[in-house]
Records
---
Amino acid sequence: MSAVHVSRSRLYSRNLFGTQYRSGRFDRLRATCIARHESTVHAPLSSGKKLEFQSGKYARFADGSAVASFGETAVLVTAVSKAKSSPTASFLPLTVDYRQKAAAAGRIPTNFLRRELGTSEREILTSRMIDRSLRPLFPEGYFYETQVVCNLLSVDGVNDPEVLSINAASAALAVSDIPWNGPVAAVRMGLIDNEVVVNPTRREMAKSQLNLVVSATLQNLVVMLEASAENVYQQDFLKAIKMGVKECQIIARTVETLRKEAGKPKREYVTLQSGSEELLSAIKLISENRLRAILRDFSHDKISRDVAISTVRNDVMEKMKAHFPETDTMIISESFNKFFKELFRKLILDEEIRCDGRKLTDIRKISCDVDLYRPLHGSALFQRGQTQVVCTVAFDSPESALKSDPVSILMGGLKAKNFFLHYEFPPYATNETGKVGPGSNAGRRELGHGALAEKGLRPVVPSDYPFTIRLTSEVLESNGSSSMASVCGGSLALMDAGVPISQPAAGVAIGLVSRTNPETQQIEDYRILTDLLGIEDYLGDMDFKLAGTKKGITALQADFKLPGVPLKIIMESVLQASDAKSHILDIMSQTINKPRKDKKDIWPVSEKLQVEAHKRAKFIGLGGANLKKLTAEAGVQITAIDESTYSIFAPNQSAMDEAKEMIEQFMKQEREPELEFGAIYKARIVELKETGVLVTLYPTMVPTLLHNSQLDVRKVAHPSALGLEVGQDISIKYFGRDPVSGRMRLSRKVLQSPASAIVKNLNGTPSSS
């Protein structure tokens, strides 16, 4: 009873202090929680497995909640949307929070506080993927702050919780009263032994050449694509997309069934007031010819075009304020934006000429350069139009590999990455101001673009490369498709650094401008644009990025502003992007077409060193003192590969030479005589111990133990029982060294019977007896 009282008090206090609850909201929530019944539906997938959706049991104060279960993996997703929109909002403020929970995997976080801390890169990328699957299906003009939270209930380490979260989010929004034109469904597609696999397990994904996530609606419309691939052929890639869309229909129908059983009526909402017909006509009359002239002046670049449009906008705003004094300034601004967008798209659809004078399939002028600065291991400059990217390569030891935490590994992540790409987008790249450097904290966009560029290049980088590779891509100018420019520049920089990549890689962005039927919302006419400009991305319907080699596809990311795009457009976009990618690779090959063979003197060096087991202590030193000395003085890093093999990493050849000299000093000693297996030697006792005697066979030898069990055929409790003394010489037989510890294997016991072999004395002094 007290728990209910506390919950109600918290709700009333939130209402009192002006949060999202409108009048009577608590009563509606209470009535909903009491009346809502639990509903469970199952989606029978083509693989024979079942995907289960459940609603009405958990988190009933949320506007919508649902649990999706696949195998033993379960995800709870909640959706809440504010009752009032911000008066200045002009977009949907949607937030998606996906968090990995160690407890869901039966683990405890390994950080100092033993709890989940800041959001990881993997969580951000998954949140973006869910956002991109949901956002296009919100109705136009819905600008209410909305939050979707994904809570992992259990993770079995076999089935994927990320794609499951998309489906659970779709179910949560479907049963809620939040306006949303779903459902949407998602599947992950793999390619194993040239066979397309639907929703592969974690172990199957390790063998898969393809990792493709497809989100689609009930109408066979694609809403989101995200893929990485091991140079997969175009036809296999398209086949996987088609099969993924087909599989999505089963899940989407199941979510629709859940909505009919447990869904709430959608709430009414207020959209931003649109301008009157009189206002729109006045804006068109004043600005159309001027805007058309700007968009057909092909001498404009990004900055001059933006300045010219801004000048027209300011002039229109001043005149409209004078003619329509009672109309809100924001309505005038939005009316101008709406007209400009329509005009921009109409010119492309009707005339098939873009604002910079290119035809639909033309690529901007490209220039490349490599080996920019001598101290860099590898570097490249890639310029495409007004998008300029500088990429640099830095090598380091294998110990510098990017390691994942145990929970991320269990949920399908890599244990360690020996190649990673960091993408930087400073504000000056778009003539803006803002934070730069470590204090700026890379946002979700930067992480997403960097991850995409890394996916595009990872398949061509050798997995057994002896160094860890960090590729940095810094955008110096941006006018569209900087992530794909990072793939091109990164490929050039890797070749300049001598990395033996399998093939050069390149990427390109494809856009879409379409005309839809106002009643059916179906696309009636469209144009696909190659090599997207920033303004075309902003005013268009699609951002479709594809990277790969001449052979196949390595990465793809597609976002849509429309509530889904037909497969026909997807197929055409892949074909058009593949043609553009090949053309870009031809241009890049004129600068550098294969990895550099001649070594730079600043390149790091890696060698392997064999150390016999009995010499390891001398090599490592007391408490690792020798290894620490090598790192401090020569700057090298020593990594143990196995029991007798070590890897030496040096920043350059001179450091390697210095390290070798130091190792020689560590290992330097008088030449040891070669001992013959099975031979009999004279051994001198240097110490008596409870367990045996310590003996030496030659003066410089480290004393070794001859155990009591090997002293005599009789059981010996202490060496003194046999009359043995320090300094006494005894005959022993040599049986080689132990393969693990490297210790000598000696025996006196086997000589208790009459000896027929010659006794060898290596001590160089006459025997005592």
---
Amino acid sequence: MSSRQSMLAAVRRALASASPIDPSSAPRLAPRALGELVRPGAILPSGVVVVARRSASGGRAGVAAASYRGPFATAHPSKEENMPFAARHLAVRFGGDGAADAGAHAKGGGGSGLHLRALRYIVAALAAAEVALWASSQASAPEAEEQTVSNWSGTQHVDCARYAQPESVDALAKAVEWAHTHRRRLRPVGSALSPNGAAFNAEGMISLALLDELVRVDRDAMTVTTQAGARVLELVEKLRPHGLTLANYASIREQQIGGFTQVGAHGTGARIPPLDETVTSLALVTPGEGLIRLSEDDEDPERFRMARCAIGSLGVASEVTLRCVPAHRLLERTWTATHEEVWKNHDKWLKEHQHIRYMWIPHTDTVVVVGSNPLAANAKVPKPTSAFKSEAKKTEPMVKLLKEVAPGVDATGMGFGQLRDELLKVNPLDLEHVKRCNAAEAEFWRRNAGTRCDWSDQILGFDCGGEQHVYEIAFRTGDDVDSNTGADLAYMKELLAMIEREGIPAPAPIEQRWSAGSKSPLSPATNDGRDPSKPGLHSWIGIIMYLPSPDPTSRAAITEAFKSYAKKEEAALGEKYGIRTHWAKIELPEGDEERREARARIESRYPGADRFRKIRAELDPKGVLGNNLIEGLLGDPKRVLRPGQSRSDWMAPGEYVEAAIRSARRATRSTTDARH
């Protein structure tokens, strides 16, 4: 055997025993033999890494810091290039150096080959764990489908990757447990009616539409217990044979009971609270504690009061018990008044009517007043009355204007709502045009004055118009209806003056309603921090802009104009009156500074915000029932996902390897970019 072959065999034996290469032996090796050992693709024992780097002097292959030239020198990849992918990134990030490693070997310092071998094993183990976790997540995931969801007003849309509709409470509980275990957002959704898409979440949503059964009716206690997926209009029909109905109704009756109560929905009536206050108990499926039952009769009702109006962020309400009232008919009267007449008669009208609302028509002196009271049980149901019996005569002013501004549009058969849309479509943001539209609408309401009588659910529900943007706020205006501070009308005076001053093309109506207060800390009409013996009097005011055209350019312009409109209202009146925005109509601002300001407003106007977060840490510690809106305004702002960001970026450190690997890759890219 030649000396070269002997040396080559000795080196192979050293490699086979995983002994590090001693740089001091390098000069004794023939260049060609060394090249055969370290060239790319050389067959080495498993786990052994040869540390080599390009020489700064010659750019040829070398060992340690030495430089070799000659016909047998062979190019060799750098140390980083020779590493497995994950280890290579770590080496780049933490500054690994082949020469330093070789030097450490020469001094008997331990051996980077062993370190790297261990690192490879760790990376492999972590990758295997990640695969196992992913497989477990997929195997136990709730049955779901991809679905595009749009809200009622056509202003919000979401492509949901996992839309689940459990058919049993057990399936619901398993879905929530899965979301908690694997830290996957699964946002509860009702009928998806909220103008702001409060329930929307691209990663996952869970609907209770299939959990809509009536559980029981207790006539003696005047309560009804229902699964939370039941729609309001369906529940009312099931209550009718029992002679019961709900205490109040919002304008739309297609809501699911869960969403109806969770967002703090309200009707109108100065002595009647929002719907969440009528909830007496509920079953809540929570990520942190599973299925729990909460009630007003609990030793500490704080959790219950927080959970019944929590925008679905403390748990998924699976069952709700509501307080009912005897079924009754309402006699409704509609009339118009001037601003002066409203200032003069407001206190009297508010006290005289069980339900009352004002529809202010901007840029005019007209206010539409709609008031109703219960019809005596044995009274004869009166026939409807109207200033004009002919619908054509009522809509005549609007039809006349439409023929003038859009002569090509055939108004035949159009009702009030469609006529308004067609009129606004001509030029929705032109101030003078909107003024003319509002004037024609005011005349319509003068001709529509009259009375009607029907069951309360039929009277209190009404047509809200077509696709629209809505911004509604609430604020306290007294301890009760007998001690109104006058803030309700003062607010309207300032709002109307702002619209005139700013030249806002505000369409009609601006709707104003009233309610008593709620003990729920997160209700916009909360009495939290107030004298509990006082019911509270709160006014709700909503501004609007319609989206009459499907044209994207027009809709985008209206959307921007409406955002400006709402922002100006908040700036001019928000702090002064301590307004709280309806949870179904509040938006998460886009800019970081605006988000901080919005969050600060909520902190200052909801005394229970901090208590909410403490309870949420128990019931949904990982925030899987939230979305950006919840996290940005109430929860943990660090969990707000930026466009294109993965939800794994807000996972707990070390819970999933995926998050660590993604962070390492981002850091590596940043380091690489900096070097280049």
